[in-house]
Amino acid sequence: TGDFHVAYVDTSQYVQYLIRNGSTGSWTRQDLTVSTGLDVYPGTSAQAFMDPFTGNHYVLFTASNRRVNLFSSSNSTTWSAMDLTSLAPVDYTVSTPVGFVHPITGAFYVYLMGQNQRVYEIWYNGSWYGNDLTAVASVPYGDYGTSVSAVVNILTGDILVTFQGDNHRINKFRYRNGTWSATDLTSRASVEYARAGNTPQTFVDPFTGAETTVFAGNNHRIQLIRFGPAFGTSTTVVPTSGPTRTDQYLFLDVNRDG
Q1: Are strands 248-253 and 236-237 parallel, antiparallel or unpaired?
Q2: How many alpha carbons lie under 13 Å from residue 148 in its C-beta half-sphere?
Q3: Rg (CA), the chain
């Protein structure tokens, strides 16, 4: 449709939803908290995303009762609310959850940092399921006050979930062919430890499949770790001990080299 959708949390901890009409350029606003009675846990955000197969719209957030909730609508006018914490065996959370509909499989995924500092997965594929990724992949607990990021590598179908451990090291989960694995990016790329309270972000180049993780180092500098084909000459290529395929782990200090 060309419409532009934005979800945000206002100063009253209410979820607001903005739509810019792609044809007229006009904006409309809906107060989703007033219609449902669900407000947002202080210090967290709301995320808007769409199902590319059905066109349904979703808003994901942590409610003031520390439970993950989902607003859903097929027309962006009439909304229903769902308590996802009650549907899957996951912990309460005081962080911002992230979610998406897998662009290849159509399955619905949500990731969050529990208040017990463990990383959890909620997914729906005909039924609702929950998973403790910290237990599955034997990684450190998450750093207090941080959230997770999650994205799909559209070229491989892999799900990538990135978080900062309580040891200030950046870790990345990978889901491929029904199996979870984990990589300590700080060790693999020999980068600076992360600042306390930092939430790393990972994004994927849709043309090359290169996976880039950005975070704030303990030295207050922006750090970048890239897994994929080498680029530029300002990066430091980590030798031999990296992955077996031709891709390489690269490190870039953006403040220094950018």
Answers
A1: antiparallel
A2: 30
A3: 19
Q: Which residues contact 178 (CB under 8 A, 6 or more apart)?
A: none
Amino acid identity at 209: G
In angstroms, rounded to a whole number, what is the distance separating the alpha carbons of residues 32 and 71? 8
| pLDDT score, position 36 | 87
pLDDT at 227 (0 to 100): 86
Look at the chain and count its residues.
258
For residue 145, CA distances in Å to 19, 134, 161, 195, 211 come to 31, 17, 17, 12, 25
Backbone angles phi, psi at 3, to 5 degrees: -70, 155
DSSP letters of 169-190? -EEEEEEETTEEEEEEHHHHHT
Q: Give the 3-state secondary structure of residue 62.
A: strand
Tens of pLDDT, residues 219-251: 888 888 888 765 543 343 333 333 333 445 555
CA distance 223 to 7: 28
Q: Nearest 5°: phi and psi at 254? A: -65, -40
Q: b or e along 194-209 (b: 16 or more beta carbons within 10 Å of the residue's beta carbon)?
A: bbeebbbebebbeeeb
Per-residue pLDDT tens digits for 95-147: 999 999 999 999 999 999 999 999 999 999 899 999 999 999 889 999 999 99
How far apart (Å, rounded) are the C-alpha atoms in residues 212 and 7? Answer: 25
Phi/psi-derived region of residue 135, left when phi > 0, alpha when psi is between -120 and 50, beta in every other case: alpha
